[in-house]
Write a structure and sequence with these properties.
Blueprint lengths: L6 H6 L2 H32 L6 H54 L3 E2 L5 E3 L2 E3 L61 H38 L17 H9 L3 H10 L1 H6 L5 H18 L5 H14 L5 E7 L5 E6 L7 E6 L9 H18 L5 E7 L7 H4 L3 H20 L6 E7 L1 H10 L8 E5 L15 E5 L16 H9 L1 H7 L8 E2 L2 E2 L9 E2 L17 H10 L10
Parallel strand pairs: 6-7, 6-8, 8-9, 9-10, 10-13
Antiparallel strand pairs: 1-2, 2-3, 4-5, 5-7, 11-12
Helix pairs in contact: 2-3, 3-4, 3-6, 3-8, 6-8, 8-9, 10-16, 12-13
Organism: Spirilliplanes yamanashiensis
InterPro entries: AB_hydrolase_fold, DUF1023
Protein name: DUF1023 domain-containing protein
């Protein structure tokens, strides 16, 4: 049973202190990384001047010491994750509490320092220092003493009379009805009850977060006293994400931490390993990539920018994949997808690469933030999935080859999200922008994709002719000023489209009041009526990349789709 959290403690909670504590754990892990690299450098420096069995033994011991340092860093990141999640949930509970207090103020109610709710100078007891009972309910049409709650939190809210006891549920006397409309009548009781329920919801969020964080930190403390395992741990070959999840669950905490420290490239890339462990492994891997990249070069700067974002806490990011080869790839979650109620996976389009990760991640993050505002009682995570080689040039984007290559990895990633999720299944939304919509469409063209909603934004075609060919509820939008929907396939020829694409902002504005093409490079226009998707509104000025502007309808609609609020989505 979840422990109660008092109103007074939640009202006084300092979220910033918990965020600072999480940042301190991350900083400790960063210092450990510096020491680990120094140890590795010293070990390497010994080899030219020292050889033989003693040198080999010493080198082995030093390597083990390095692994132990990395295992400690994994443990520190575990602490960071637990405290970061607690801080985020505590912040959410405070927002819910603030909303409840605002509702009380609008209704003319007051909430005391211990959570007691008052209406018309009549106090509603039962909230002082504990989570309020859900049994509190508005009274029936009995007399003045009508019972407000089933048990424990009874409240006298009727006017007049001295009849039955609210605590015992006795009938009212002759002094009047609770429905008389006087001060503290049925209307006030309903308002009080609404505030009680809202406060209770905030306290419940805080209580769950408190219990979860305590359990995670206690489990971490218990495992730190054990030595590293001596066995070699390997995942099953060719396993599905669900099988990987079962294998991982069968390892002890010490085994998982040791495997993460010694084989971060393996753990970090495994769909089916929980997001928290993948984040720890990929942070280790990121450090190695940064150490190997020439300082000051483009690759180093891209990796350094990613490391800076991971060091922040607004909100905490999870590194689910990183590969600096070529243009670079990365998978980054904002919030923990394994514990979220709603999960958005954002697939970017042409020219997306590691160097430009920041703006793409910002788009996904803006949807998550807006979703949190629309559904404050639920947890939302957003994932930027740049797990494929996006086209660099228009002539590459005219081919489906890279989308086909990326679609299978996207399907497996989504399967992994389903496999590692904790609690009831999350609502999954898969969003593809520009060429990313072709990746999404290719993945969704076969049954079994782990996504409830498919969203195609500024699409050059999804590889199909109708929404019915995709598996999931399909949504689509294209701005009137997005030049992508004016790029028709042959016989108009690719050169003409190259000219359009090379001048997307200018051409988009020129054609904002023109007629979009029905057939695009990769199939029928998803934003057209004949495609059959649920079309939603986006601002006419969005062009090709402005759908995430905070003052336009597109962002709000994307957030509503993410939280499953189909009824609130506005149509063009």
């Amino acid at each position: 049973m979840t422990a109660a959290v008092s109103y007074a403690r939640l009202a006084a909670a300092d979220v910033g202190r918990w965020e600072s504590a999480a940042a301190a754990w991350r900083a400790l892990a960063a210092v450990g990384g510096v020491r680990s690299r120094e140890l590795a450098a010293e070990t390497t420096g010994l080899r030219p001047a020292w050889s033989g069995s003693a040198a080999d033994a010493a080198a082995g011991r030093l390597r083990t010491a390095g692994h132990l340092v990395d295992a400690a860093r994994v443990a520190w990141w575990e602490a960071d994750q637990a405290v970061s999640v607690f801080a985020a949930e505590l912040s959410r509970a405070r927002r819910l509490l603030d909303a409840a207090l605002a509702a009380a103020a609008r209704a003319g109610l007051t909430v005391g320092p211990n959570g007691e709710v008052s209406a018309a100078a009549r106090t509603i007891p039962g909230l002082s220092g504990i989570a309020p009972s859900r049994n509190h309910a508005p009274p029936g049409p009995a007399g003045a003493g009508g019972r407000a709650g089933g048990s424990g939190t009874a409240a006298h809210v009727g006017s007049g009379g001295s009849g039955g006891s609210g605590g015992s549920g006795g009938s009212g006397g002759s002094g009047g009805s609770a429905a008389s409309g006087g001060p503290g009548g049925v209307g006030a009781a309903v308002a009080v009850d609404g505030v009680v329920v809202a406060i209770e919801a905030a306290l419940a969020v805080a209580a769950r977060a408190d219990a979860d964080a305590a359990a995670r930190l206690a489990a971490l403390a218990d495992t730190l006293v054990h030595a590293a395992p001596g066995t070699h741990l390997t995942p099953p070959c060719n396993a599905t994400p669900a099988e990987i999840r079962a294998w991982w669950a069968g390892l002890s905490p010490v085994e998982r931490r040791w495997l993460t420290a010694t084989h971060p490239a393996t753990v970090g890339a495994l769909d089916g390993v929980p997001a928290a462990a993948r984040d720890q492994a990929n942070r280790l891997l990121l450090d190695r990539h940064r150490a190997e990249a020439p300082a000051g070069g483009d690759r180093w700067e891209a990796l350094d920018a990613l490391a800076d974002r991971l060091a922040g806490d607004a909100p905490r990011a999870y590194l689910l994949g990183v590969d600096p080869a070529g243009d670079g790839r990365a998978v980054v979650a904002v919030g923990d997808p394994d514990s979220a109620d709603h999960v958005l996976t954002h697939v970017p389009g042409m020219t997306a690469d590691l160097a430009g990760l920041g703006p793409e991640l910002g788009r996904a993050e803006r949807v998550a933030v807006r979703a949190g505002e629309l559904a404050p009682g639920a947890r939302t995570a957003a994932v930027l999935w740049l797990g494929y080689d996006a086209p660099d040039f228009v002539f590459e984007a005219s081919s489906a080859r890279q989308a086909e290559a990326g679609a299978e990895g996207l399907r497996r990633f989504q399967d992994g999200l389903r496999a590692t999720h904790e609690g009831p299944p999350a609502h999954h939304t898969l969003l593809g922008h520009s060429y990313g919509s072709l990746v999404v469409g290719t993945a969704a063209a076969r049954p079994g994709l782990a996504a409830d909603d498919i969203v195609l934004v500024g699409s050059p075609g999804a590889g199909v002719q109708t929404a019915g060919e995709l598996h999931g509820q399909v949504w689509a939008t294209s701005s009137r000023s997005d030049a992508i929907q004016y790029a028709a396939p042959a016989p108009r020829s690719l050169p003409a489209d190259l000219l359009v694409a090379a001048n997307v902002p200018v051409v988009g504005q020129m054609l904002a009041f023109g007629r979009p093409e029905d057939d695009l490079w990769h199939g029928r226009n998803p934003a057209g009526e004949e495609f059959g998707a649920r079309r939603f509104a986006s601002q006419a000025s969005a062009g090709h990349v402005g759908y995430w502007a905070t003052d336009g309808p597109a962002l709000d609609n994307l957030a509503r789709i993410t939280v499953g609020d189909a009824a609130g989505v506005t149509r063009p």
